[in-house]
Amino acid sequence: MASNAIIYPDVLDPIESASREYLDRHQEASLAVMCEYAVANAPLIRKVWADAGVKPGDIKSVADFREKAPFLTKDDIRAYRDAHNDPTGGMSVDSPGQTVSVGTTSGTTGDPTPVPNWRRTPAEETYARDHWHIGVRPGDHVCHMLFTFRGGHRRRSLSELGIAEICFSISPFEIPRIVDASKRFRPTSMSIFPNPLINAFEQYFEKTGEDPVDVFKSYKGAIFGGEPLGDRQKALTRSWGLELFETTSLGDVAGACECREHNGFHAYEDIAFIEAVDPITAEPVADGDIGELVVTSLVDRLSPLVRYRTGDLVSIDRSPCGCGRTHARFKLLGRATDQILVKGRSILPREIMGLVEKHDETRANLFQIIRADREMDELKLRIGYDVTRLKDSEDALKLRLYERISVAIEVPLVLELVDEQELLKLGPPHKIPRVTKT
Amino acid sequence: MTTSHPDQIGCYTVHGKTQFYSVKRTELDRAGVQMARTLRSFAFKPGAYVLTVSVVQEVVQFAPFEFALQLLGLYGTNADLSPFDAGRVESLARQFDPVAICGVGNEVLEGLKMMGHDAAAVFKGRTVWARPDAYDAVRAMPGVAARRVVLIGPALALECAKGGLHIDGREWEVVVDNEELVLSSRQHRIDPVSGLKTGFSGRLTDMPCACGSPDPHISLDGAI
Ligand SMILES: [Zn+2]
After folding, report:
1. Which of B2, B3, B8, B81 to mutate: most A Cβ within 10 Å?
2. Angle of CA points A425, B91, B132, to nearest 5°
């Protein structure tokens, strides 16, 4: 309420701006506690540690943990699930009175994985911190769009702070109601706001003549998630007066969201311990270098993932952030299985994307990296172009693309141009396989 | 913060019009305690799974149901009411073998069909609370204990094990006006309801239900 005179703190939990030294010590203590707990309670962790011949008592420091704690992969979880007929893959701790419901992952590939939920899950804790950072305060409203499989109707991490959630499905059919709610309740934030909804809003505004700037004038931000945010959507929402904060999953243990500096996803380090390792050798990589994100939950007693390899390639930055918070940020660069090394240089689809879209004929960004092996002597690209937009000849376009890409990437390059309709046969534009063997 | 600020804003639809509806968590929780009385009639074993099929904006109607599951030591899990999420209904049924599925609507039946699953096989051996648009189809499936679940304005009417379609009598006063069920709130609420025409024709049953719940039960004739 506007009449409220209370000045609230900048961060929801003081741990968000704790000193680096305090955070490091806190993590050291929590890691020892969680290793002990996970081995004692989670059947799969017990097995993985026994197979590796490591005992929780061997972990007395972060250095011990990095040196000795065995990794856990999605394949380990799947294998355990199939061998023991356990849907949680040996990762669920049966704690009567603690599990209040069982959520599931999106399950885009195969069966969704169960995630037992405590009263306030780590993801709900991080979600509340993220909204708070955007500027949501008690007495405010938030547009809450989600799928029920994320935890049903029991979520209360915002309402327990005195923040009202206006509930919607993530569906274009909800747009008129979201517009209505925005004008009526004047919310200060919304989540999750994905690409398809942005496009649906654009069509709605065109059709109705409704003024987006007026609709969104009370918003201090909107949390965007689902897939990488494109330049077009960024510019569009900016013209509506909406600041988007991208969010991503922190390897299934929590959420990670951008701050107002927009220079990476903040990983809350009291909730997860994060590392980056070489995706092949599993050797640690230095902060700032590209490696596979490995996460360990420091709080989740119902699903205590320890050294879980996420398959995401990231670069981690642990320097203090301009937003006033001290927790690490990471840039998400792609999936480890998409990475290719050409003469030792790491290349990911995301890097190529920014180059291909710069030409009018190839602005749809349809291309594939031919990856016969992880290490190649040359970068082979198949690029689709719109034949109706060709302004000179195919050879001339090829030359233009060749110059732009080879200058930026600086490795031997082989290009193959095809009619983009050929690539569109492989799936919708955002789903075509970016990396292919042939 | 003032006490007049809602915790959740859900909605209800009557006569084709969807209205925002504000609630406090305490209202949802106390409705859950009431609903546990109807749910108890099934004597599901603690530790069993119950799958709820709904959408996020149905929080006012389904949060009490989920809270009742927790109170009885059951594990709730969720799928969206949408043809696209019907695959999750099949997957969760297979993985968790839930004793019951609540909120099945025509979207689920269509989605299962689209994905090549036999709904009767997915539901077999379970209690399935179906919405009005799916009830007849579910009732026709062999080996399925079909029950009704009906969103009546902001209230959720849930059928007990003895066939009574119960509504929370402490929370809502139901009267019949011109054959239409009319709902008013009886308790302190952040968003009081007075004389809400629900769009359903029906009657109040004046005999106590065999399930032992003192909550009133209604018989529905259909939509108006
Ligand atoms: Zn920051």
Report:
1. B8
2. 100
**Nearest CB to A177: which of B18, B77, B78?**
B18
- A258 alpha carbon – ligand 1 mean position (Å): 7
Nearest chain A alpha carbon to B46? A96
Q: Pick the residue from chain B with its C-alpha nearest to A157.
A: B7
Tokens of A377: 């002597």
Q: How far is CA A197 from the centre of its chain?
A: 18
Classify the complex by whether its ipTM is higher than 0.85, answering yes or no. yes
Q: Which long-range contacts link A183-188 to residues 24+ away (Cβ below 8 Å)?
A: A183/A214, A183/A215, A184/B20, A185/A141, A185/B9, A186/A141, A186/A217, A186/A218, A187/A140, A187/A141, A187/A142, A187/A143, A187/A218, A187/A219, A188/A134, A188/A135, A188/A136, A188/A137, A188/A140, A188/A141, A188/A142, A188/A218, A188/A219, A188/A220
Query: What band does A429 get if pLDDT is binned at 50, 70 and 90?
Result: low
Q: What is the CATH number of domain B8-162?
A: 3.40.50.12780
pLDDT at A226: 77
Same domain, A17 and A155: yes
Of B2, B11, B190, B84, nearest in space to A144 by CA: B11
Residue A289 lies in a domain: no
pLDDT at A350 over 90: no
CB B155 within 8 A of CB B164: no
Question: If pLDDT is split at 50, 70 and 90, which confidence band does B3 have?
Answer: low
Query: What does the buried/exposed string (b/e) look like for A351-386 if buried means 16 or more CB atoms within 10 Å of the residue's CB?
Result: ebeebbbebebbebbbbbbbbeeeebeebbbbbbbe
CB atoms within 10 A of CB A196: 13
Question: Is residue A108 scored above 70 in pLDDT?
Answer: no
Q: Are residues A260 and A351 in the same domain?
A: no
Task: For residue A192, give its domain range.
Answer: 9-267
E strand intervals along A228-366: 244-249, 255-258, 265-266, 272-277, 291-297, 308-317, 329-335, 340-342, 345-347
**How much is the CA Rg of chain B, to the nearest whole Å?**
17
**Could you say which DSSP state residue A229 is in?**
P
Residue A102 within any structural domain of the chain? yes
A146/B56 touch (CB, cutoff 8 Å), yes or no: yes
Q: Are residues A259 and A408 in the same domain?
A: no
DSSP classification of residue B1 = -
Q: Domain map of chain B by residue range?
A: 8-162
- The burial class, CB within 10 Å (0-12 / 13-18 / 19+), for B176 is middle
Cα–Cα distances in Å, from A224 out to A25, A145, A196, B141?
33, 11, 11, 42
pLDDT at A3: 56
Residue B95 has pLDDT above 50, yes or no: yes
Q: What is the pTM of this model?
A: 0.89
Q: H/E/C letters for each residue in A138-181?
A: CCCEEEEECCHHHCCCCCCCCHHHCCEEEEECCCHHHHHHHHHH
